Amino acid sequence: MGAQQVAERFTELYGAEPEGVWAAPGRVNLIGEHTDYNDGFVMPFALPQQAIAAVSRRTDGILRLHSADIEGGVVELPPDALEPGRDTDWTAYPAGVAWALREAGHGVTGADVHLSSTVPTGAGLSSSAALEVVIALALDDLYGLGLPGWKLARLCQRAENVYVGAPTGIMDQTASACCEQGHALFLDTRDLSQQQIPFDLAAEGLRLLVVDTQVKHAHSGGEYGKRRAGCEKGAALLGVDALRDIPYAGLDAALARLGDEEEVRRLVRHVVTEDERVERTVALLRAGDTRAIGPVLTEGHASLRDDFRVSCPELDLVVDTALSAGALGARMTGGGFGGSAIVLAEATDVDTLTKTVEEAFAAAGRTAPRVFEAVPSAGARRLV
Ligand code: GAF
Q: Angle at the Cα of 104 (from 103 to 105), degrees rounded to 5?
């Protein structure tokens, strides 16, 4: 659905044209998984799939929300209804953002919102961050707050952590807010410093496929939080603020100090090696050696599967099948426990690879995966 259709539906619903229309994308993470809540490095890029919101201000504090993608009418939230933990459906994301803005002292006096999103939900592609960021940007613009993308991302993360109750890091919101077309975002999640790394696969005869396994995941479930708590325990045992502070060269010594904490040791090993993989990927891309990132992606998958233990049989099936059919590299992307994998391949191999993965899923009796090409796209912006 495009900006015009979203605006027209807004007008039907609310009886007046919207003041504006905004978009915020989902993302794929190229490398740097489960590092963002350890103050580490990540490297996402924005997808063409995006959430679009038509929005107008209100003066009475009321938030009215409607989604083209979910059955049901307009949901009306009076000002005193915005309370963490209260909304348990999709409205928690936009409501959480309005709550976070108000809580941070910004005079947001209500809004009428109509939303539509093409980001698949539960697919590890940041559909929730897209919803949060599109609302944050719209309210920032309409209320003249002038907040930079990274600050909007922080407020959206607060909405997700406190209002929705999912203990996620900062990667997805920053990706949606700050990515640029044709680039991957090299982000230091400690200070949110950013570098846009040119990432034009098509120019090199390459493609990056997203394979959505259709196994749905959710981060408010316990496993994500357990990994996060395990990492925090590791940092505490090692006497550092965050696992980011363990240098790669000091990893063996750090692991030795963890004694019989086998599980924590695995988590620490993943995070420290993953940060190094991000830095290696950036160096390879800067050197113009894009094909060489393939094995780095695959190493990342093995670490997420064996050490961090957030993969699942379907994600492993994508990775193993794609690699045996000639992919340059493959890994799960996002939080894991379902969702999507990415496959780096020669453009000429895409059809065969897609067919091989689909056949492997059919042979294993699994739901057919959804395969599409990931093109590095623009971050959040005003459309109308
Ligand atoms: C999810 C979270 F939302 C991110 O913050 C990040 O931790 C990711 O999982 C794993 O890298 O997408």
A: 90
